[in-house]
Amino acid sequence: MRRLKGEDNSFLAWESDVQPQYTIKAVVLDPSQGREPVTRATVRAAIPALVEHVEPLQWQLLMPRLGFGRPWWIARSEIDLDYHVKHATVAAPGGDRELAAVIGDILEADTDRRRPPWQLWYVDGLAGGRVAFVLKVHHAIADGMASLRLLEAIYSTDPEAPLRQSRPGPPTDEQRPALRAWLPMVLRHQGTAALNFPRIITRSVRVAGIMRRRQKAGKPGYAAAFSAPGTRFNAPLTTDRKFAYHTVDMATIKHVGKAFGVTVNDVFLAVCSGALRDFLDRHGELPVETLTAVVPVSMRPPGAETGWGNHVARWNVVLATDIADPVERLRAIADATTTAREVQAERDALLQHDWMEYWPLFWFYSRALPLVSERMTRRPTFSLIASNMRGPQRRLYWAGAPIEKLISTGPVVFPMGLNFTGWSYEDQMTICTLVCGDHVSDPWEIADGLPRALAELAALAPALPESVEKAV
């Protein structure tokens, strides 16, 4: 049994029928190059052994008795294959748009909290005989870094590696503990939280002082909440989801970053900003003021073994959508992320993470107060979510079949009804656009602007010395 951390539990607490908190990790592969057949039947047959070896695929939520205490993960090695392994066929001609439509439908599909919170969809009908595996997994299980670990556990970097085999002997499932064992565990956790609470308050006061001193010194801070005007994406959500993506060249992203002295993440945000600005401008909806973004960043120590669950900070940055010039927009975004990095270094970086252990209080601060403020100001907390993740750096395989593309998206969270998610894989980055279908009927109107925005920056980038260009 594993008690959910406060940050993991927040994704369950935020979840509703119109706001499911699942992520997608989809791969496209070529079965013709596999050592073994990659069919719906062979994939289904391989899943039980995979579940035995990949720990979080066994996890099922154990909700607290009488609503007292935090949920737990409990291991269940036997799964219902009819529920967890699904099948879909894309429409002809089986390209990116048709696959994206299926992924959008998968994001709408109902899920059952009484089962381990994941499903794997085998999607056929893709052009060239290719297939896609679309893994839908609850965000409470994994953030970006943990999702990378999950992918590396499911797939292999060795084309000769065999598929997992079931372990000998009967599986061992965890059982709900008896009340006499469970109640003392809960009381110990509650007691520890109570003892730590004064230190949380002290740390919060210290951080408030740091922020006040920074403000008095005239230094910029995070993008302010409720500073951005509302757009169509900030309306109430429905169950409808629309999804699109484009794959762009990582070498071009790195070239632009080197040429302008900014990071890959800065270029990613500028590309998203440019595509969004173009979409709003075409529809006569571009605000005079800049939009803002919540940008998740990993808080796991460099080089540390990646655990499961979530461990992220959230930067609040301007997207400079009010700036027409692409280079000036990129520089403004780079200034904003530099400020965010400085603020994170100065303040208690783990404070928000630790506050989530006190969920009722954190909910009041993070959800209840913003809802009141949104009604008073008629502005969203922030405009959208934008997340960029460095994915696998080596080619992945399933039964020897090479994985050619990695597609990933996180959920939308009201009032941020637009999510940009970028994952790199080998020499490319796939940038995904997820929206509520009631806000945007065709997300390709936004996504098609992504490669155009990158090409525009690349065309304006100064040439690099040959030695620097080779390093990129």
From TrEMBL:
Pfam families in UniProt: WS_DGAT_C (PF06974), WS_DGAT_cat (PF03007)
Domain of life: Bacteria
GO biological process, one term: biological process involved in interaction with host
UniProt-listed InterPro entries: Acyl_transf_WS/DGAT (IPR014292), CAT-like_dom_sf (IPR023213), O-acyltransferase_WSD1-like (IPR045034), O-acyltransferase_WSD1_C (IPR009721), O-acyltransferase_WSD1_N (IPR004255)
Domain O-acyltransferase WSD1-like N-terminal: 4-268
Keywords: Acyltransferase, Glycerol metabolism, Lipid biosynthesis, Lipid metabolism, Transferase
Pathway: Glycerolipid metabolism; triacylglycerol biosynthesis; Lipid metabolism
Enzyme class: transferase
Record-linked SUPFAM superfamilies: CoA-dependent acyltransferases (SSF52777)
Keyword GTP-binding set for record: no
UniProt GO molecular function: diacylglycerol O-acyltransferase activity
EC number per UniProt: 2.3.1.20
Any single Gene Ontology cellular-component annotation: plasma membrane
UniProt entry tagged with the keyword Transferase: yes
Protein family according to the UniProt entry: Belongs to the long-chain O-acyltransferase family.
The protein's name in its UniProt record: Diacylglycerol O-acyltransferase
Organism: Mycolicibacter sinensis (strain JDM601) (Mycobacterium sinense)
